[in-house]
Design brief:
- The complex is a heterodimer of chains A (114) and B (108).
- Chain A is an all-beta fold.
- Chain A is built from no helices and eleven strands.
- In chain A, a hairpin with a 5-residue loop joins strand 5 and strand 6.
- In chain B, a hairpin with a 6-residue loop joins strand 4 and strand 5.
- In chain B, 29% of the residues are buried.
- In chain B, the strands form two sheets. In chain B, strands 2, 4, 5, 9, 10 and 11 form a six-stranded mixed sheet that branches. A five-stranded antiparallel sheet of chain B has the order 1-3-8-7-6, with no helix packed on it.
- Chain B is an all-beta fold.
- Classes of the chains: A mainly beta (114), B mainly beta (108).
- Chains A and B meet through strand 4, strand 5, strand 9 and strand 10 of A and strand 5 and strand 10 of B.
Chain lengths: 114, 108
């Protein structure tokens, strides 16, 4: 099956710093990548959708200047949490799909801002 | 944001039982309905998916039933095992809207 690798799997950072999370499709070309945020015992909330080579489309209420998404190639998308604060602590998950058919998920990144 | 309504929120069954999780959607443009299984601290894994041109799809112990007119679909897990204990999410279409999730516990 298709493999999506997300890195790092966990990160702890100081308040005010920026953190970059990578999402790579290892054995297929992902035309679309999705970024989600998940709070404990809750569902996945879509943050943004990105298509290779174009700007990401953010969901209502998601600050695009805070959550920078880059999808520079068909196998890599990055999410940068800028000027992170404790309330940004969460589980971030990416998924990748080809032409928005099946979507395959990364293993998630646990971000803790202290 | 949720355009897919999932129930129940939690479910406890005995080993060998058949838990059923239901989802309802509103947008008739949705054309792809996957189910995902998620263990704590892991990303969701695709279990099974269906398109609206069929009413049922079976893969191993997992079956999706789809009712296009009612805009509902459900996941059935046959001969459930303790290892099936996880959170299950339904989703709809390429927009990847997820249901709220169902926490399944299968007791030995």
């Amino acid at each position: 099956g298709a493999v999506v690798s997300q890195h790092p799997s966990w990160v702890i950072c100081k308040s005010g710093t920026s953190v970059k999370i990578e999402c790579r499709s290892l054995d297929f070309q992902a035309t679309t990548m999705f970024w989600y945020r998940q709070f404990p015992k809750q569902s996945l909330m879509l943050m943004a959708t990105s298509n290779e080579g174009s700007k990401a489309t953010y969901e209502q209420g998601v600050e695009k200047d805070k959550f920078l998404i880059n999808h520079a190639s068909l196998t890599l998308s990055t999410l940068t949490v800028t000027s992170a604060h404790p309330e940004d602590s969460s589980f971030y998950i990416c998924s990748a799909s080809t032409y928005r058919v099946e979507a395959f998920f990364g293993q998630g990144t646990r971000l803790t801002v202290v | 944001q949720q355009q897919v309504k999932q129930s129940p929120q939690s479910l406890i069954v005995q080993k060998g039982g058949i838990p059923i999780i239901n989802c309802a959607y509103e947008n008739t443009a949705f054309d792809y309905f996957p189910w995902y299984q998620q263990f704590p601290g892991k990303g969701p894994a695709l279990l099974i998916a269906i398109r609206p041109d069929v009413s049922e799809k079976k893969e191993g112990r997992f079956t999706i039933s789809f009712n296009k007119s009612a805009k509902q679909f459900s996941l059935h897990i046959m001969d459930s095992q303790p290892g099936d204990s996880a959170t299950y999410f339904c989703a709809a279409s390429s927009f990847m809207r997820f249901g709220a999730g169902t926490r399944l516990t299968v007791k030995p």
